[in-house]
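Deliverable D4.2, example record:
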Amino acid sequence: MLSNTWTYFREILKVQVDLSKILRKDRRTMPILFKVFSPLIFIYKLFCFLVILGSLVIYSFLGRGFYTSRKARRRFHSVTVSFFCRLFFRVCFMRHKVNHAPTGDQHYLVISNHLGLIDILVHAAVRPSLFITSVDMHETPVLGFLTELGACLYVERRNRNNIQNEMQDIKEALEEGFQVILFPEATSNNGEKVYPFKKTLMTSAAGTGIPLLPAVINYLRVNGEAMSHKWRDHVCWYGDSTFVTALIKILSLGTLDVSLDYFDPIMIHTEEERKEVAARIQTLVESKYIPITYPGLENAH
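Output generated by the structure prediction step:
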């Protein structure tokens, strides 16, 4: 079914890829073009999103019946989501550049900053992964359903009584060969800085032999313009903004360029190391993160 879905989009992709190359060649005219054609671009992207989401849901429900074990279902869902995320990037004029990407079959507990929905799509597109998210997200209508399709791992941030069981679930996923993504800020934000990392879940990798892999996401260009405060609310999901509002703003963008930078893997052997390791990783992420600041405050960070 995945091959049929790809064939369905192939003709669209031929036109879309050529148009994207043409638009990106002249960055001076891109903002004007996107302003003039923004309603049509939004309609096109909304159509693509609905088709891709519908295909993902149908394929996931049809396919999961062939897998009985938890490990097999997780593998199926992570690979499926990765494919559709790559497809979404292709048809929606979005590009992600990966720097210092790890090679080979080694998997990691990836530790990354978090700004909004696109972060998740980038990580999933680069490699099939399981994401750690909150129980309250699982309980949210629509979003909870989508997290199930992605075979997410859930933690209860409102009550820490079950933390050992949750860490064991993460540890088992790592030992089963899955790449797991952790956003240790425990929330997305407005892009002005990297929030302090929460340390506890990082120790899930202790004793597994699975390294931690620090990573940082930066938004570089939007509609041919350098990323700035002007576009902050289109890529960051924070405050009282709803999922629907955040999604509409993403779909209203023209082109988007995102970078994902990896650092060297770090081993954590015991829970006692978590403060030192967390501080080290936060320093690495902050060193490569490009803040989205208000005009005139660029040199304040």
